[in-house]
Design brief:
Four copies of one chain form a homotetramer.
Chain A lengths: L1 E4 L5 H10 L3 E5 L3 H10 L4 E3 L2 H6 L4 E4 L6 H10 L3 E4 L7 H14 L3 E3 L7 H11 L6 E9 L10 H17 L5 E7 L9 E7 L5 E7 L6 E8 L3 E5 L7 E10 L7 E10 L7 H13 L5 H23 L1
Parallel strand pairs in A: 1-2, 1-4, 2-3, 4-5, 5-6, 7-10
Antiparallel strand pairs in A: 7-11, 8-9, 9-10, 11-12, 12-13, 13-14
Helix pairs in contact in A: 1-8, 4-5, 5-9, 7-9
Amino acid sequence: MIGVVGLNYWGPNLARNFAELGALSWICDLDEERLAKATARHPSAAATTEYAELLASDVEGVVIATPVPTHYALAKQALEAGKHVLVEKPPAMRAAEIDELVGIAAERDLVLMPGHLLLYHPGIRKLKQLIDDGELGDVLCVYGNRQNLGIVRTNENALWSLGVHDLSVMLYLLDEEPEQCVAHGRDFLTEGVEDVVFCYLRFPSGKIAHMHLSWLDPHKMRRITVVGREKMVVFDDMELERKVTIYEKAPWKRTDSYGEWQTRSGDISIPKIPTDEPLKLECQEFLRLIAGEGDRRKVAEDGARVVRALDRLTESLRG
Amino acid sequence: MIGVVGLNYWGPNLARNFAELGALSWICDLDEERLAKATARHPSAAATTEYAELLASDVEGVVIATPVPTHYALAKQALEAGKHVLVEKPPAMRAAEIDELVGIAAERDLVLMPGHLLLYHPGIRKLKQLIDDGELGDVLCVYGNRQNLGIVRTNENALWSLGVHDLSVMLYLLDEEPEQCVAHGRDFLTEGVEDVVFCYLRFPSGKIAHMHLSWLDPHKMRRITVVGREKMVVFDDMELERKVTIYEKAPWKRTDSYGEWQTRSGDISIPKIPTDEPLKLECQEFLRLIAGEGDRRKVAEDGARVVRALDRLTESLRG
Amino acid sequence: MIGVVGLNYWGPNLARNFAELGALSWICDLDEERLAKATARHPSAAATTEYAELLASDVEGVVIATPVPTHYALAKQALEAGKHVLVEKPPAMRAAEIDELVGIAAERDLVLMPGHLLLYHPGIRKLKQLIDDGELGDVLCVYGNRQNLGIVRTNENALWSLGVHDLSVMLYLLDEEPEQCVAHGRDFLTEGVEDVVFCYLRFPSGKIAHMHLSWLDPHKMRRITVVGREKMVVFDDMELERKVTIYEKAPWKRTDSYGEWQTRSGDISIPKIPTDEPLKLECQEFLRLIAGEGDRRKVAEDGARVVRALDRLTESLRG
Amino acid sequence: MIGVVGLNYWGPNLARNFAELGALSWICDLDEERLAKATARHPSAAATTEYAELLASDVEGVVIATPVPTHYALAKQALEAGKHVLVEKPPAMRAAEIDELVGIAAERDLVLMPGHLLLYHPGIRKLKQLIDDGELGDVLCVYGNRQNLGIVRTNENALWSLGVHDLSVMLYLLDEEPEQCVAHGRDFLTEGVEDVVFCYLRFPSGKIAHMHLSWLDPHKMRRITVVGREKMVVFDDMELERKVTIYEKAPWKRTDSYGEWQTRSGDISIPKIPTDEPLKLECQEFLRLIAGEGDRRKVAEDGARVVRALDRLTESLRG
């Protein structure tokens, strides 16, 4: 059974999904009013303002949806209490912290799963499948555009607030640790909090990735583009019915000319993407991992890879 | 009167425009066949395969549309022969070379005008006017997207082939020399010739700029976006009738919350842009500069600024 | 105070809105389960399965959200019981019926308001204002596209189910009774229930209108276009942020040619449209009319005009 | 060999194409200046201002590109002179005239081919193939949108000037003579010349068709939509690279509900369409028909079907 801690913004959604999956047994928040409100919706769940009480209970898994700066400490306590952990993104703010959490989880064979919602989006799954099936040919470049979305944060910059989404997806798609992480940007609105950030990553295989992250933009974009040597594919989360578009577009060397390359354009296809709710799929995955299915080590390690890249990008951005 | 040298790709367009303006008196190309073809169109223009003959003639201005690596040398000869020069972009491939050319032109008070066609596009003029009139408020960020366009070059990378367009526009709009020039990218198709390049520039005023340049992309884009503190504006050259879109979109600080910023969206307007042909306007500008109108020093210096930035970006890309 | 009858689909939304306006005092439905569910949400409202009981109560206004075929009879009873009436669209299915209802309402000076939701959409209000202010010049033609939307009905054809929306808007915008009403279409899925319908209307002023209504279409459209002699304007309800677009596009006679007309294209503007919820505005309007504000006779007569046109179009369609 | 008569607007394109196919031997125009200009381009073709001279020559085929009102008489003379005829659209303005031409052509076994350019567009060919291969299932409805395009004519209304394109395509796709032809519209700019026209057609098979034709419109559209029972397909001639889009969108009856229909949405595909020039294909077709390939009777009869439908629609429009 599952306990959810932090019931302010996203926590209630997690609680609702675990309740619908018949797995919610505890809810926890420091704020009594929020707790009361959540109790009204989930009367059968035990409620507490004491995190320690939750950890002392018989819940198997703890779901952490508290403010970002508390993620690491709360996750560590939960793991040390022998609980499986699903922790909202980012699970930690420093590479050292996430590596420590991964170490504890590995030692005790516990689940440490970051809440990278987009990884459970059927459209992103389609991209992963296209890549893994070799449909795109060698992947050369992946890039994300996340612009003009959401509330401008004053305590979290665009890299951590927006970039964590694209980065988790791009590392999931490429399944590789970047060897080069460069970031540039500026803090136009709040001093010290970058609102426009550009990131460049290079991988040992030679692949490259890029992110354009911005709160200040006329274009509303949530888009990930994958350039393969044989096909290219775009995931556009602003589209209602055309989430994934596959382009038979590829460079080819003209035999009749002086070795010049051209771009060949062919069919375009827009496969029907299932409308399954990503959050439900994410919650099911956590339950499956707890039940011993899937590769819990890889899930934890993949999560750590994202934090390490964020940490290095932050260093580059500040440097 | 004007002489045009180099009649392979772009040269014939320049010759035609100067002819229509009644100013074409010489044409020159090493290739006799090309020269014959151009002569058929411009029977009243003198024709030669000898550049020296052109320089020895009484033409006032020389228009150089030869292959890029020859630009600097031919421009230098023309200036030294006392001719005004319009030279296709880029006018030189090294900062030292362009600075030398600017020096010669200044010394002899000659026109040295680079053929930055986009600067004469009525849509780009509109952007410049909006910025200079203060319509956008302080400009914070400018960025260009030039993706999936044209023939992939094997002897010129995406930075020099595609980026020169956006860079000339962005420096024209901001009218400032960048203090930081960083470029990243990769050569996927032809070794040593980058086909995907990302550039980041930072200016002394704090403004930033970015370019996404790529021959390998599913999206066909030719777009320049300007983010001002009060309005944002987009120039989209792939649009037929909506070249410029102005967004009343700006960050504002909510007074009722904890100092958080939000994005306020207002009216959108798409002004009618005149359909004047940029090349004709460019040719007219050259004639005007020769006639003593306008600021020929600034034109030369602006051109040099573009080459210097390209040179620094190249260094960063290779480094 | 207000009583809402019919709590199946749309009724609960009406109940909620009147409750939020502090005006809901009765709820009524034949189905006890539905009634119980609504009572849980509105515990302070009296509940009954007997319409007669509602009519015998002291409610001032009755809101009818029952199945379409019952609208006329229930509205008639309510008016005869001296109640003001807001009745979902269409308020009746025959011209004779609506004329009778309008007569009763007029005689007793009661409100008879049809629930034409779109008339309260801020985007449609903007169109009306542009027309009434003369911004568009003489209006020549209005047409609606409502395609590929909603569930295909088996008991109501595309004209009554989809067309009622566009027709109410077009008659509201033109404020004129059509002199010619022609409809064509076919019943591809359910015999006798047209799923593709085209309607043409002509008005005494010479204006024309057209509707393309279809459940079988690849394009998802909810659009109303107004062609004025000086400007044209489009209301597109599928757009999130660009609901209304104004085109400075108009025919003009070239003076230099043989009296030929051309289309002149100018600026395009997309005004910011308030995001006020139309249903709330509709409910407020009903309360205002009850309170004696506005022109209740015109509201009833406008509603009748829509039913009369639907009746004539139906005759044409069948004939 | 081929003679082209009428060298004002479209004629020169026909002449150029036949010249490129090595088949142009005569050119003819009443205007000496035009004739001289065409002679300069086609010096090897015989030139005359006398149509009789052309007819008396040994040309096998005559291509008529003169003003519309002259088409019938010139085509008749050519057929009577034993020449094969390619005549610009519409080949005649009355049903009786085209039937007469078809009769003469049939009697003498001559080619009578109307210049319906769109029928040779690879995108329209794709639609035809999809329909004939049964890919779309039963075709239910076809409709065309041709709005805001071209110069407003003062001597030809939107039906004849714009509608002839869509009508030729729709009759080609359905290959059936309509049993019902209804048209409505108005003449806003020039008295007696309708600039906005709506047409409805019904076929013996139960299929229906519709055209929305207008010079006064904010939307620039050139689009033909085919609704099949299993798939839907759109030809959009305003798109550069996405001319044809196929939607796996179809109605289906839910088994779990009360016989209600729903729309099922599946994959979307945008096949690569060859960029062959339609005019060249049209000219080649004429040469092939002359050479005895293809079914010349059907080509003439198909052309007549279009004129008959235009004639009936005109009667409805005026009636």
